[in-house]
Structure formats: C-alpha cells, structure tokens
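Hi all, long-time lurker, first post. I run a small reading group and we've been trying to get comfortable going from sequence to structure in the token notation. Rather than ask abstract questions, I figured I'd post a concrete chain and ask someone more experienced to write out its structure so we can walk through it together at our next meeting. Sequence below, copied exactly:
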Amino acid sequence: MKKPAAPKKQAKKNQQPTVISWRFAFVILSLFAVFSALIIRAAYLQVLEPEMLLEQGDMRTLRVKSDAAMRGMILDRNGEELAVSVPVQSIWADPQLVLRSRHKIDERRWHALADMLQISPQQLSDKIGADDTKRFVYLQRQASPATVDYIKQLKIPGIAFQQESRRYYPAGEVTAHLLGFTNVDDQGMEGIERQFNDQLTGKPALKTIRKDAKGREVEVLSQTDGQASNNIQLSIDQRIQAVAYRELKKAVMQFGATSGSVVVVDVHNGEVLALANAPSYNPNNRKNTDSNRYRNRAITDTFEPGSTIKPLPVLAALENGTATMETVISTGYGPVRIGGRLVRDINGYGDLDLTGIMRKSSNIGVTRLALGMPTDKFLDMYYKMGVGSETGLGLTGETPGVLREQRRWGEHALATVSFGYSFTVNAVQLARIYATIGNGGVSYPLSIFKSSNKPQGERVVSEEHADNMVAMLEAVVGPGGSAKKAAVPGYRVGGKTGTAKKAGIRGYSDDYIGSFAGIAPISNPRIAVVVIINEPSGDYYYGGEVAAPVFSAVSGAAMQLLNIAPDATDSRITKVSEVPNAG
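-- Answer (accepted) --
Happy to help. Here is the structure in token form:
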C-alpha cells in the first residue's frame, strides 16, 4: 500500500510569489500615468491658465442686454417734425439651424421666403451659405411690416427677427439737401444728420446678466445707464421751405435749367428760414439716385454774382465820401474803354444819379464809382460784407468763394469786380449781404438753428447809407427798373437782378446764371431772399425773367406766413419812364 504524497502538495500550496506580475505592473503604471496627467492638466487649467475656462463658461452663460436709444428728432422752428425714427424689424438667419432643418422645410415655404425677400431661391441659399458653424447672417435690413408678418407665418426654423429703427423724413425731397440722411445702421451720412450725428445719437442702457442652461436669467452682474438722444430744432420754417422748393422746382422745369437754389434769411438775427435746391431726391427711397443730387448747391456751388453785387460799390462810394445821393455820374451813350478793354451797358443812359445807376443796372456807372475811390477802400467793402469768407452757417461742405488778392489792381480788373465778375460767392453768402443791407448795415453770422438769444452783430455800413440802399433797391423793382417781375402785390419789396456768363476752361461760355437777391418788406425789412437759376435754356435767361418771379412768389408767401402786414400804398408810386430790362 502506497503512502499519499501529502507533504509535496502542502509545500506547493505554501509557496509565496516573490515578483509582481508584469501585467499587474502595467495596469498600475497606466493608472498612475492617467491620474498624473489629469492632476497636471487640472493644475494647469486651475492655476496657470484659468482664464480660458472662465471665458468658455462666460460664453455659455453671460449675456449683454441693451435697450436701444431712438435717434433724436429734427424739428423746424415751430416744432414740426422734419426727421423722425420709426421702429422696424430686420430679418436674419441662423445658418446652423437652417441647414440642419433644410430637408424638413417645405419647398413652397422656401420659395415664398425668397419671393418676399425679392431674390431667387438659389440666391437665398447662397446668402445663408453652406457653413453650418455660422450663427448669424442678415437676410433683409429694415423690412416692411407686411414682409415681416408674412415671413413669420412661414415658420421656417432658423429665421428670426431683430428690432431696429429707421429714419423717416415727412417732407421728403423738400428738405433733403439740408437734412441729409442716415445709413442702414442709423448713422448720419449727409447734411444735418451727418454733421450732428453725435448729438442725435443716444447711448443705449446696458445690462450684463448670467443665464442658466434653460436660458433663464439668474443673476445681474452689472448695469450701465444709457444716455437719451437729443432733438435738434432748426431755424427752418417748414411752411416757407415748402413754398420755396415748389416755386424753385417749377422755375427750373419751366426754363429748362440744370439746377437752382433759394435761400430765405431773417435779417434781424441771421437765422435761415428756408434753404432749398432743385433737382432734389427722396431721402426715404434713394434707390437708383445719382450721388450728384446729394450736393447742397446753396452752400457748395460758387458763381460770379453779376449785377446782384452792384450795391457794394455804391455803398463803398457813400461810405468813403466819394459820392452822395445827389452825385451824378456820366455813363455816356455807348461803351467806354477802361484799362484797354471795353465796358458797356445794354443801352446808353447818359447822366445817372446813384438810384438811376441801380435802377438801370449800369456797368459803366458802378465802374466810375469803383475807380473814383482808393482801391483798398473799394475792396474793403466786399471783405466787410463777407465776400471770400464763410457765413457762420457751420454746415459741412460750405465753399466761401474767392476774391483773390492782387499786388497791383488794374483798372479793368476793378471794373469787373464792381459789376460782379472776377470773384465768386455762393447763395448763402449773397443772402447774408442782402440781410446786412436790410438790417440797417449790421451783419450777423448766418445760423441754421433757432435761438432765443440774439447773436452779436457787427456794424459794417452806416444805418443811413444802408437805408438809402434799401430805397434804391425798391426803385429797381418799381417802374423803370430791371426787376418789375419781382413785385409782390400789397407789399413794398426791393432787390437786384443778376445775369452772369459762366466761366469755362477756355473762357466764358454761352451758359448763364440768372439770379435775384432782394429784401422785403421795404418799410421794415424782415427777410432777405436769394434765387439762383443755373443754366436756363432757351430765350429766357436774364435774372429779371427767370429768378425775379420766384422771388415774388416766395417772399410774398413768406410775409403772409410770418403775419407781416401789407405796406404798399398808392402814394409811394413814382412815375418813371420805362426802359428795357438790364442784367
């Protein structure tokens, strides 16, 4: 009988391993490496670069809400709204949502969306794009309410709407050049809108909040108060502005002119009551509008004023004592040679006093006056009246014109300056000159804003001589004068016509500028009105034919709107023999 092998088995059972299995070691080392990497990464993110985590968290939870501030209104002197902002909505798309749900969208709804946006379905697809990482793209800015309502009913995933404001101009083209317009982002681009954009634009109130995963507001982190926008009140009287634009537009069309301008100024304070240009444009719909139409010609375009400047040499002679109201000037009956060149009148007028020189618009008469005084005294009257300097209007783009200094003035050069050539002005500059005359010789800077405080004026002409000039200007409009068509029924008015050839590259062309500048009413001047008709075509181009009727209509309506009582009486009419019209 064999003995059992118990001791051997017991020894095997009691044997202990002396080396860790390589598999177990690998697992331990792997776990140690992973945990070490996690600890190092966590330490790096938490200690060395915590900003990235904070930024990622903020991107998911932080939001900034703003309460948009509506753009300020532009008002006329009576509080009438000239420019207002109206709430509108813009249409935008989330390309990510649109592309993800594109296969679920009924093609008829997709085509209807494209039709409302006035583009093709393919253009709509191109606009949204194929990049599903983008989250925002505009489809249409400042859409009409009808368009927004219809697209909302389509219920297309990813199409959303954003509240904005749009500028609206109730008077349209009547005030377009003065007010200008804003772009789609409500920033001023032209005129008053551009120049005073900061005043008209308010600052929105901002609130930084934190939202949870469901989009609920859980915390307000910061809040900044907004700043309300400011309204701007202009000196413009919308009623006079409308009349001025209507009459100007009619004249430009009637005489086939390329353009025209009208400026109306209150002589008592220099405030501009109307400033209109034609042709104009509709600021509410500028589609296909030539950018050349945006120019405010009354302040940007300069021209040689022609006979409208003749009050200045007459005033210079009175101020310097080289002539009096009784002085008689021999103008002869034909052209005269001045500085080797001829100066002529339309007709021979013989001997004329100062009133006669103005009434007949005698080039020879004002030339004799200019050459009869020291050159510096003669030119000083032009400078004091503002020729060659800005009017104070302060509008961007104003071109003040040029009166060039010369070391030595020839006689013919002085002669041409005396009857309105060899220098340039703009319409507002000319209006300021006549406002100064109407205000008794006190000059005010022009202003486009209504103010309760009268500005500081400067006396540039004695009151006596300014009043004498007002009387002479009345004679121009009366019997025997060159501007009978400027007369206003029931009112005494005065002014001066101008007909100047336009200078070109090769000298003077066959194009003309017909103009009229005047004052009303004569008994107590209140307004100065300047009318410019640029390049009238056909047989009528004299200022007395094309511009004087506009003055009559505009000044007559303005005096009625300003409640100025009629001042005409039969006793003031003086019988003077009729003569042909001059420039």
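A couple of things your group might point at:
The longest strand covers residues 507-520.
The radius of gyration is 39 Å.
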